[in-house]
Every structure is written in C-alpha cells, then in structure tokens.
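Model it.
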Amino acid sequence: MLLSLVIAYLVISIAIGLYGATKVHNARDYVTAGRNLPMVVVLAMVFATWFGAETVLGISATFLEEGARGLISDPLGASLCLVLFGLIFARPLYRMNLMTLGDYFRIRYNRQTELILSICIVVSYLGWVSAQITALGLVFNVLSDGLISQTQGMLIGSGVVLIYTLFGGMWSVALTTFVQMIVIVIGLLLVTQHAADQAGGFSQVLAKASAEGKFEWLPTLDPIDLLGWVAALTTMALGSIPQQDVFQRVNSSKNQTVAVWGTTLGGISYFFFAAVPLFLAYTATMIDPEMVKKFLHDDSQMILPSLIMNHMPFTMQVIFFGALLSVIMSTASGTLLAPSVTFAENILKGFAPRMTDQQFLWSLRATVFTFAVIVTFYAIMTDESIHSMVEHAYRITLAGAFVPLAAGLFWKKASNLGAGLSITAGLAVWLMLEFLGIEEPVEPQLVGLVASAIGMVIGSLIAPNRGHGHGGDPRHI
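Modeled.
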C-alpha cells in the first residue's frame, strides 16, 4: 500500500511536469521559463537547490557521526553561497539577460574561457546529480522491503525525473518544485513533531544533543583545524557560486527584485529548515539506539528511513516518503537540467552555430537524456556516500571558475590573459595536489583558489582589459 501511494505521487509529479512542457515554445522558455517566475516560485526553487538527498539523508547521518562540525560545508556553506549570490552576484548577472554562465565567460573574456569553464561546470554536476539518483534507489529499496534493489530503484527514479525534465525544462522544474516544496515543509514538520513526542519532547532531545557536544561547530585555535574548517566552508560557499543551476533560478525571475531577494531568502530559509532533518535523525538515538549503532557501522544513510519504517504509523510513513521523494526530485530535476543546458549552449552550439531555435531545443533535450544516462551509470558504479558526492562536486569550480567570475564582474582590469592564467594556475595546482594526495595543512581546492587569484592578478596587470568592463561587448553591459 505504501509503495502504491508513492507511485501514485510520482505519477502526479510527472503529470505536473508534462503540463509545464505545454508552456515551452522555444529554447529560452525551456531554459529560463520565459523569465516569468514570481517570488514565491523562485524562493521555492532556490530552497530546493540545496534541500535534496544530502540534506535529509546525507548531512543528517553526518550530524549523528560528527556533530555540527561535520556540517560546515552544508548547510552553513551552502546557505552562505545562496545569500552571497543573491546579494552580490544576482543583480549584475540578471541585467545581462544571458542564458548560461558560460555565455558570461564568452562575453566578458573569450571563447576559450567559455569552453574550459563550461566543461568544469558540467563535470562538477556529476557527483551532485548522482547523489540524488543514489538516494532515489535507496528509497525504492526501503519502500519495497528489498524487492526492488538499489540499482533498480536508481533506474526507476532517474526515469521519472528524466520524463518531465526532458520535455518541460525549467517550466517543469518550476511547477513541480513549487508543489514538492509544500509537501516537503508540511510533511517533515509533521513527522518531526511525531518523532519528538516519541523521544520525550523537543527539550529532551535538544538537551541530550547539547550534552554530547553535537552543537559545537566552531574550529579550535589549532592552525590545521582552522584551515580545515575554512576549506570546508569555502569549498561550498564560493565553489557553488559559479554554478548554472543557481544562476538559472535567478535568471528565470520575473524581475531584478525577485532575482535578488528570492535567492537571498531561499538561502536563509534553507539554513534554518535544514535543522529539521538533523533533529529528526537525532531522535533516532533516543527512540532506537541499537538500530542507530548498527547503521552507524554499516550505512548511516539508512538510519532515518529505518526509523520511519520501524517506529512510525502508516500515515507518517506516507507523509515522510512523499516528502523525501519531493526533496530528491526537486533537486534532481534542476541539477539535471543545469549541466545539460551548459553543454548544449556553451560547448555544442559553439561547434554548430547555425542551428535554428527548434534544432537547439531538441539538442537541449538530447543532452538532458544523455547526461541522465551518464549520471545514473556513475551512481550505480560509485560507492561514495551521498554527502561525500555532493561535498566533492564543487572543488573544480572553486579552483577554476570562481575567480574569473568574481573578477570579471567587479574588477575592470580583469583581462583575457588574467582569466587564462587564473584558470590554468588554479586547476593545475588543484589537480597536482589531488593526484599527489597532499591534503594537509591546506586542502587542494583552497590552494587552487589562491593560485587562481594570483594568476588573475598577474595576467590582468601585465595585459589589463582595455574594453568596457565586459569583454569589450557593450551590448551586454
């Protein structure tokens, strides 16, 4: 019965997504929803950018193992990313009326910069989307009591997300996400209230967690510890800024005010609501400590689903798994669309510039399908945890793309040579340290960020930009 109800919910989600497809008349509709989305929808989509499988299953498990110190990258760094993007980056990027971040790199610098950084952005999504597919497989495995394997569940889940994303693009993402976010918020609050009652009340749970030091999140004064803390925060907070999915949500807003405040408020909302699955997971240590001990040793991501299946009434099970599927699908659809759009617009289109709009629209859909196949295969083959896949996704964009984006927007002297040296130095240093396995005293991506900044400064001072501050293309100032 539970699995049947969940399948019915999936069918409804597909129907909503396919309705969104009726609003797609051209490529820009597919990518930016015609720039018509209101505040409440943009806020919901930005919130859903991060409130995915890693929040409910990944960081909640990490919280049980490491406490708040394990959550510096997410939710703290993730929330900070959205707030910074909204307050600092959203306004100038929205005014340029672009389709992708790759377009910005071409206009501000050159085709080579566009191509290299677009490849970096596409690669960075491999782990993130795979994390959502992995979580879908886990959910179907739990709901079927093992009759559906995790691999089969991944195939089913990716197929569902693919269907409505493939045809409706950003319109389908927007409409399904809006409905899914309502289910998420109401569902998780109801389940958490029920779990708190079983554990002896909110104050009892918070008191126990505090006594165990779970809320200690600041680093010590030890230099190594401090650098590790900063690296975790910076990787997510800055490395996630040059990402197409965040930009796409901003760019789909109906006006500049919505773009700025929808993103900022979405980031703030995410930070506070991320506490709900953390609290819910911790109640498991009081309701069924033996189960928690077992799964901490085997697979900590199973703690929350097992708590719901073994200790919640049927109604709460329906609510939780409906909310969980909403969480995963809302993130998966957006993160599947973003790299596909970047590839089609900034890589493929550069080699076929004479495509008509309808040809480009179908190339977008073909890319969505291809990327879905690739990430599903990767999810099946990898043995990384959900949190780990997400946490590692942004190293490449932190080392290679953040400095060219920030310098291009806010430093008039930033030049093509500066961008070239920035990308080369940042990626080379990061890859070399990763290859050699040198992660102390500073993590490779943070050293790559510093090298990238140095490259930008040196190159731009040697050959400063002489144009209008946007690559000499005044049409996009």
